Amino acid sequence: MLLITNIKKIVGILQEDKPRLCGEEMNTLNVIDNGYILIDDGLIKEFGQMEDCHKDIENQIDATDKMVFPAFCDSHSHIVYAGSRESEFLDKINGLTYEEIAKRGGGILNSVKLLHQTSEEELYNQALSRLKQVIGFGTGALEIKSGYGLNIEDEIKILRVIRQLKQTTDVAIKATFLGAHAVPPEYKGKQDEYVNLVCQKMIPEIAEENLADFIDVFCDKGFFTVEQTAKILQVGQKYGLRGKIHANELDFSGGVQVGVKYNALSVDHLENSGENEIAALKNSQTMPTGLPGCSFFLNLSFAPLKDMINSGLSVALATDYNPGTTPSGNMKMALSLACIKMRLTPAQAINAATINGAYAMGLSQTHGSITIGKVANLFITKNIPSIEYIPYAYTENIIDRVILKGKEFIN
Ligand code: NIG
Ligand code: FE
Question: For helices 346-353 and 331-342, what crossing angle results, to 10°?
Answer without folding.
Answer: 140
